Amino acid sequence: MNTSIDCIPCFVRQTLDAARMSSDDPAVHEQIIRDVLRWLSEMDMSLSPPALAQRIHRRLRELTGIKDPYRMQKEQHNQMALQLLPGLRTQVETSNDPLMTAANLAVAGNIIDLGAKSGLNEHEIHDAIRHAAEKPLEGDREAFRAEVKQAKQILYLADNCGEIVFDRLLVEQLGTHRVTVAVRGMPIINDATLEDAVTAGLTDIVRVIGNGSDAPGTLLEDCSDEFKTAFAAADLIISKGQGNFETLSHCGKNIFFLFKAKCPVVAASVNLPVGTHVLWRTR
Amino acid sequence: MNTSIDCIPCFVRQTLDAARMSSDDPAVHEQIIRDVLRWLSEMDMSLSPPALAQRIHRRLRELTGIKDPYRMQKEQHNQMALQLLPGLRTQVETSNDPLMTAANLAVAGNIIDLGAKSGLNEHEIHDAIRHAAEKPLEGDREAFRAEVKQAKQILYLADNCGEIVFDRLLVEQLGTHRVTVAVRGMPIINDATLEDAVTAGLTDIVRVIGNGSDAPGTLLEDCSDEFKTAFAAADLIISKGQGNFETLSHCGKNIFFLFKAKCPVVAASVNLPVGTHVLWRTR
User: Do A6 and B16 lie within an 8 Å CB cutoff?
Assistant: First the structure.
């Protein structure tokens, strides 16, 4: 997916957020924002939004020396989600359709996205959980069910912290013996890395790999050989979040994209309203 | 008021809005946004937000040749407000406190601001009118009442189209014999100019002057002599909207600022939550 000019105000906001998390000095914030504005004025808009975000955040780290500005928020979101987990698990276990309930809750967890919007409150998470209970995923649910039934190797592409705890419920439904979970290789925005998979308890139940990259999506050319091998070997890929969708929607693999449509650009690209819990298939 | 780095995402969004209203060509939108990003990266942040917006919109007009991109929206907002006017007038006439009711409704009309946010629906206007009916203006209402009572020459600084129709109710309460209304000298965003004062019927009841400027606020050094004379002669100034507040809050005159706090930067500067109907005094 190319970058839209509508992504630019969002990049600027994201830069401000990250600058403030990296430094308390307003002069540093101003220097960073000027630097990123100049850089954005010359950007290559044929790149995907995560490819541009990757470069912006690399530059931010260069300017501030802070490797993981979102670390505190990430930890908070993991802990918040872990507290919700027992209730969510009951919801899945008592459901008539545990697979779809778990999938929809995993999409609800995708609200925890500091790339799409500044900050997050518990209220928004509860709204998304309620949304999951009330409205089915929008997409070809029966194809998803059929593909899950016959898949031998499932690669599950995680997205954000907090959300990765919700993902555990779906991973359990998929069957831990055939699932590999991939997380980002390095910190980027509030995306989950290996330590968050540990916190979520995923490393106790499935194979978890880092993808070797610091993009808030999956730029295949940027990923490790280990990830590329897992990607090639999987007969079904379940991909979480807008960033993975933006980078893989035209890659030709058998992928089901699960995400909450949070921005008008992505929502328009799947022809669904902002807020929809999306199950989007591409082959 | 200096420009905050939080104003930047808003400038970028405003640029996109205006670019799209000025041209249907995505290549032109991209050229404009790149140009403005480069320009923003070097801006002088000691200028007020309206001074920067003035320069951005001048550059937009230069690039597109379109003098008044918001003209259609402005006309729609005027007509929408004119349809509401009889009901609002009844609200004022049946009120126990017609002056404060008219002032609060004039602030409700300040929701019609395409600088602070893209687009506007009637729903938001009705919400603001309801807000005016339910919550008093935040500020020194008794000082306002006393100053209005004794003022000899009131200069009323209008802000936006549509809103200027709401202003008529307050102008009528103030007493048309002692009020001069000032509008922008040239089109800028959806701010009201002389033709909108005509549409609102203000020119039939009071003296209306343009301020000679194309800033979405009141940059005194940029205003006409006629305006400066009226400004100096007034013993009470009633100023509508955030832009006028951002440019005049420290000018030393006896001014009551009436506005709906629509952005976090302005809301923080008066220590009130976003959404508040503000009556802010400065001398």
Answer: yes
Of B125, B141, B99, nearest to B278 (Cα)?
B141
Query: What tens digit of pLDDT does each residue of B129-152 get?
Result: 999 999 999 999 999 999 999 999
Average pLDDT over residues A97-111: 98
Q: Is the separation of the CB atoms in A58 and A213 below 8 Å?
A: no
Distance CA B134, CA B120 (A): 22
ipTM: 0.82
Within a domain: B2: no
pTM above 0.80, yes or no: yes
Inside any domain, residue A203? yes
Average pLDDT over residues A47-54: 95
pLDDT tens digit sequence for B209-261: 999 999 999 999 999 999 999 999 999 999 999 999 999 998 989 999 999 99
Q: State both tokens at A66.
A: 């802070």
Query: Tokens standing for B167?
Result: 């202003």
Query: Cα Rg for chain A, rounded, in angstroms?
Result: 18
Regarding whether A55 and A76 lie in a shared domain, the answer is: no
The structural domain count of chain B equals: 2
pLDDT score of A279 more than 70: yes
Q: Contact A224/A185 with Cβ under 8 angstroms?
A: yes
- Closest CA in chain B for residue A4: B30
Structural domain harbouring B81: 71-282
CA distance B140 to chain A (A): 33
Residue B182 near residue B114, CB atoms below 8 Å: no
Q: Which of residues 128-167 of A touch B (CB under 8 A)?
A: none
Alpha helices in B175-278 (DSSP H): 194-199, 225-233, 241-248, 264-269
Looking at the fold, whether B244 and B119 belong to one and the same domain comes out as: yes
What's the mean pLDDT when you consider all of chain A? 95
Sequence-ordered list of residues with C-beta below 8 angstroms from that of A192, at least 6 positions apart, any chain: A74, A158, A159, A160, A161, A163, A164, A183, A184, A200
**Share of residues in chain A with pLDDT > 90 (%):** 90
Quickly count: other Cβ atoms within 10 Å of residue A267's Cβ.
18
Identify the CATH number of the domain in which residue A30 sits.
Answer: 1.10.8
- Interface contact flag, A33 B9, Cβ < 8 Å: no
